[in-house]
Amino acid sequence: MIVDTETIDEFLARHASDVEEAVRQAAAQEIMPRWRTLAAHEVDQKNGPHDLVTDADRRAEQYLTEVLGALLPGSVVVGEEAVHADPATYGAIQGTAPVWIVDPVDGTRQFVHGVPGFCTLVALVQGGELLASWTYAPARDQLATAIRGQGAYLDGERLHTGVPEPGRDLRVATSHPDYTTDEQKHALRGVWADGVAPRACGSAGLEYLAIARGELDAVAFSWEAAWDHAAGLLLVEEAGGAHLTLTGEPFRVTGGNALPFTAARDAATASRVRELLRRGPA
Fold first, then answer.
1. CA–CA gap between residue 264 and residue 272 (Å, rounded)
2. Rg (CA), the chain
3. Sign of CA dihedral 251, 256, 257, 260
4. 4 annotated ligand binder
5. Cβ–Cβ contacts within 10 Å for residue 199, how many?
6. Cβ–Cβ contacts within 10 Å for residue 248, how many?
7. Strands 52-54, 43-45: parallel, antiparallel or unpaired by DSSP?
8. How far apart are alpha carbons 271 and 268 in whole angstroms?
């Protein structure tokens, strides 16, 4: 079993391109052939009409589970659909083995409605530390990657979050209030403030990519499912950004975070959004 960081680094040096190819192939074989061609029987609800799953989600996750597990012996795959079927499998994130965290189709609602705002997310984590990530938007043919300590890239070009333009309202994407507790609703209303231009979020993975590209200033999210956040948080970090929970600590993929939390293009913006969340509406 691979357990030490040095060996993981060696694995990534040898096989990062193989992971990229696996992500592309999952999309090419299982996702894109079903985009805009889904039949009614290929779409199901998980936890209500806004929480959808399709045959593309299931088949792409199965493909990635097989390929990624074979690439890194001793690793474990934690996928969104597998956890829905057996919630106990989520606990592997707390263990010592390397873990692949997979969201086969992030933005399933957009995928079902035939719009291009969806992506495939893969992150490699060990002992709660984010080590590498892949964010692939197949309808746009955009691939963003990050390896801890080596930077973030989009289609081979280095990403830098930059800083907000002086005098411009902060652009912040937020959780939809329908999926929050009353306490979280109160906190999220804090970003409806002077100098902030909030909007509802789309695919979490693509919102993180927008921060890494310097197109979005921050997100304010109220849930902590690792498959939605792991890949994007590392991408933002390696592009120069930061993330904070309500108590001022960095977000932990292992859970137990004080929510809502923010990820932002720089530490100052993260602190500002966190303070708005902590304070709530004026």
1. 10
2. 18
3. positive
4. no
5. 11
6. 12
7. antiparallel
8. 5
Residue pair 117/206 in contact (Cβ under 8 Å)? The answer is yes
CB neighbours (10 Å) of residue 147? 19
**79-93, 165-179, 236-250: least confidently modelled range:** 165-179
Cβ–Cβ < 8 Å for 245, 259: yes
Which stretches of the chain are DSSP H helices? 5-26, 55-71, 80-85, 108-112, 182-188, 204-212, 226-238, 267-279
Could you tell me which residues come within 8 angstroms of residue 194 by beta carbon, excluding any fewer than 6 positions away? none
73: left (phi over 0), alpha (psi -120 to 50) or beta: beta
- Express each pLDDT in 227-244 by its tens digit: 999 999 999 999 999 999
Q: How distant is the alpha carbon of residue 87 from its chain centre? A: 19
Answer CATH for 170-279 from 3.40.190.80, 3.30.200.20, 3.40.1350.10, 3.40.630.30: 3.40.190.80
Task: Report the candidate in 278, 224, 222, 232 with the shortest Cα–Cα distance to residue 256.
Answer: 224
Is the pTM higher than 0.90? The answer reads yes
Q: Give the CA angle between residues 230, 235, 237 to the nearest 5°.
A: 95
Domains of the chain by residue range: 5-158, 170-279
> Which CATH architecture does the domain made up of 5-158 adopt?
2-Layer Sandwich (3.30)
DSSP state of 251: P
What is the tens place of the pLDDT at every residue in 182-219? Answer: 899 899 999 999 999 999 999 999 999 999 999 999 99
Is 103 labelled a binding residue? Answer: yes
Dig out the tokens for 237 from the structure: 């970090």
What phi and psi values does residue 55 have, to the nearest 5 degrees? -60, -30
Quick one: pLDDT at residue 281?
Answer: 85
Q: What is the torsional sign of CA 76, 81, 221, 160?
A: positive
Contact 232, 121 (CB under 8 A): yes
